[in-house]
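Risk mitigation, structural track. In case the binding assays with hypoxanthine fail to produce interpretable data, a predicted complex structure has been prepared as a fallback.
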Amino acid sequence: TDLNAFISGLPKAELHLHIEGSLEPEQMFAFAKRNGVSIPFASVEEVRAAYAFSNLQDFLDIYYAGADVLRTEADFHDLAFAYFQRAAADSVRHAEIFFDPQTHTDRGIPFGVVADGLLAGMARAEAELGVTSKLILCFLRHLDEDAAFDTLKAAEPWLDRIVGVGLDSSEVGHPPSKFQRVFARARDMGLKLCAHAGEEGPPEYVREALDLLRIDRMDHGNRSMEDEALIARLAAERMTLTVCPLSNLKLCVVTDLKDHPVPEMLRRGLHVTLNSDDPAYFGGYVNDNYRALAEAVGLSREDVVRVARNSFEGAFLSDAEKAARL
Ligand code: HPA
Ligand code: ZN
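Fallback model:
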């Protein structure tokens, strides 16, 4: 359709992308082979068939298992560069990518192997594809705050190349309050702050992310829509929400894309962006997310333009940098 073609060519930023979640099954086999790692699947088809999730934890179990094929700096470089090639094909001009260092350091992969590999892939993407990017270190919320502090310490030599910190993994039972001290430290160090909130967790977790973590950007935020005062506050504070429609569908955060909260979020003046989250696991990259949602809920061209503009406005870039990317 006309709108699909318009979406394809529209310059956009992607602000919610877990680089480990861009590991396509074909790459999983290639990395397993070159590293001599065995994986519990016989074929790419078998891997894809396993990607039927009924909630966040179902997905996380398989996502952390998949990450075990990533061993060398070259693996992280290749993973990142392959993502940027797909992003460039979707007219993504700028991406702010999450990585989960604890998933790797807890398997004995040094922090520097992960960070240097990703940073090399990012530098190559800027030089060869013209896609700029920033790196965001996520703390795993199912682990304790001391482990997050250890990770921040391990990251110290790289902090001039890391724009901020995030909070991901199993949400329910691991409220933002658990990480209040490490987020305060990160803020003191000049890092930007984001957190996954309101994906499965209640509106109270969204409030904690705002009041206790003092986040600059909110990942997901869907369940904010259950709380009128919270909606008004997010609008008044111009908080950017990094919404991920195909992720929400695959993780059963919504049962049908037709019921997705984005139209209501836009009506209420929230600063919505659309993103792919873990594209290799959820069945689509950023344009697939724009297209599937636009078709399901009937977004207009103006809605789509607004969302793309929000993606640059919500980026951790200076005003001059934002203008240059548009
Ligand atoms: N939610 C929480 N943790 C995650 C996600 C997500 O959507 N993707 C990767 N880690
Ligand atoms: Zn996410």
